[in-house]
Inverse folding.
């Protein structure tokens, strides 16, 4: 149970609840050992994990996301719990790193058991997977109109220009007066800004009616 990781919450469970969840055995189970677990040592580890988690909460609230990630990772390494992973994902999302955010949301999903939390995390994963990526399109010469995936209208403006495309395969059609239509297939990757340059091929010159053109 870690219901407070829902979208209503900024940074997941509080440190006291985090410690309580560990004490109740709701974190990852410890490896089976032939020796009895020292109660005092276990309690010390739980307190250490809660302290790391509280430190992460404070850093997150201050917008120091890179530092908060280190604290959440330390908490998870000391006493593994999905709330630490969830908050790491939130930090990466705020740092505009959707690839790492997606990685940690997916890890959180694998160890979450609450249906409401699972639904929330899946929604975040789907949103990240559909997040548009910047694609810088240029042509030689410049000034071409770009149509994406057979849409009825070209994108506003002409090359060079920036498009925002969802991850996946796309087809770009580039049109410029006096040049052949050019087609460019490309695969847009999540969170990776990509440049695309297309060299346009000029149409053959036409001869005016009043002029006698040389034989080709």
């Amino acid at each position: 149970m870690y219901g407070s990781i829902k979208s209503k919450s900024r940074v997941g469970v509080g440190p006291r609840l985090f410690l309580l969840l560990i004490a109740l055995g709701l974190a990852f189970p410890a490896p089976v050992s032939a020796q009895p677990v020292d109660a005092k040592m276990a309690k010390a580890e739980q307190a250490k994990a809660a302290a790391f988690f509280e430190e992460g909460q404070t850093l997150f609230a201050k917008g120091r996301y890179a530092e908060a990630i280190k604290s959440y990772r330390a908490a998870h390494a000391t006493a593994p719990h999905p709330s630490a992973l969830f908050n790491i994902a939130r930090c990466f999302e705020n740092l505009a790193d959707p690839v790492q955010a997606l990685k940690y949301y997916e890890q959180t999903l694998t160890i979450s058991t609450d249906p409401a939390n699972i639904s929330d995390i899946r929604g975040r994963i789907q949103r990240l997977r559909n997040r548009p990526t910047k694609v810088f399109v240029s042509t030689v010469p410049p000034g071409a109109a770009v149509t994406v995936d057979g849409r009825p209208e070209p994108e506003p403006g002409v090359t060079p220009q920036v498009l925002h495309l969802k991850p996946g395969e796309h087809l770009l059609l580039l049109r410029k007066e006096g040049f052949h239509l050019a087609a460019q297939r490309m695969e847009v990757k999540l969170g990776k800004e990509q440049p695309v340059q297309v060299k346009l091929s000029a149409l053959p010159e036409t001869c005016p009616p009043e002029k006698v053109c040389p034989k080709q």
Strands lie at 133-140, 145-148, 161-165, 168-175, 182-188, 194-199. The two ends are 80 Å apart (CA to CA).
